[in-house]
Design a protein that fits this description.
globular, about 260 residues
Amino acid sequence: MEQISITFTSNTGLLMQYGDTKVLFDSLYGKSGHRFSPLPQVLEQEIMEGAGDFSEIDYLVFSHNHADHFSAKYLKAYLQQNTVKGIFLPEDLLQETDLMEFLKAKKIPTMFFSKNPRLNRTIVLGKSFRLRAIPMCHQGEIYQEVPHFCFLVSCGAEQFLLTADVDFTQEDFSDFSQTSLDGVFVNPLFFHSKEGQQVIRETINPKEIFVYHIPFDADDVLSMRKMVKRDCDKWDSCPVTPLWEPMQRECRAVDRG
């Protein structure tokens, strides 16, 4: 069997590698404009320089245009030093004229996810590595109009759902009830709440849960790490893996199908 390697960066940032394809999610953002964990300086430098595990990234993917997930400034700085095969962005970034002109000048293939689900086709990123963007509302009433996307990632016969900051209390996950999910990535509030746990148990029904967007210890002013640990200890269904340390790596066997 082959393996998929999942390396956690920060918040909902992930480096996923399957075969010879590397995809970086939500990992180019700054330290200001949000109250969540910044990338540790050493890790930020490694990403920006395309060093170590972050060498030869093929694709960059962003779930939504919030300062703890995306920064046009950091994206441009990254692309000054690194070459990628393609970038996938939420459609509201089409309004960022400076960024659009920069990407056009660099001749970087760029695709924009649409809030109309029928316009988001399944994207082939590599041999047996596929991505589908699913528009789903961001949690919190004030963010309902922000284009926000979850991702269904297929590696061989294995499928993983990345939910970012989805509004699990309002969205309908029934489409996933017929999908065999090997893993689902949820934030601490999704995993903690009765509504979220009900969705996980009764609708998504994954083989494994990954909890991300957990603050690093130095940033954990609300003791969310303790909450996640308690929730993991009480969970009596499938395995749960908290992603809460930078460069934490999880490898899973993948059936080629």
